[in-house]
Design brief:
two-stranded antiparallel sheet; alpha+beta; 1 helix
C-alpha cells in the first residue's frame, strides 16, 4: 500500500514539473512578466517599469538606487 502511494506521489510530482516546463516554453522570449514597456537605468543597466524610474530627460532614466546622483 505504501509503495503504491509513493508511486502515485512521484507521478504527480513529475506531472507538475512537466506542466511547468511546458508553460515556460510557451511564453514568448523577451517578454517580461510585467508585460509593459521597460526602461534601462543609465547607471547600472537594470531594466524597470517607467513609473519606478526617474526620468533625467533625453531618454535617460535611473533606478531608485541612483536617485541621489540624479538630484533627488
Amino acid at each position: 500500500m505504501l509503495r503504491l502511494l509513493v508511486i502515485i506521489a512521484l507521478i504527480w510530482v513529475a506531472s507538475v514539473i512537466l506542466r511547468r516546463m511546458s508553460a515556460a516554453r510557451k511564453r514568448p522570449p523577451g517578454k517580461s512578466a510585467y508585460g509593459g514597456k521597460m526602461v534601462k537605468c543609465a547607471e547600472c543597466g537594470v531594466f524597470l517599469p517607467p513609473q519606478d524610474a526617474i526620468d533625467l530627460g533625453g531618454g535617460r532614466h535611473v533606478c531608485s538606487a541612483h536617485r541621489r546622483g540624479a538630484g533627488d
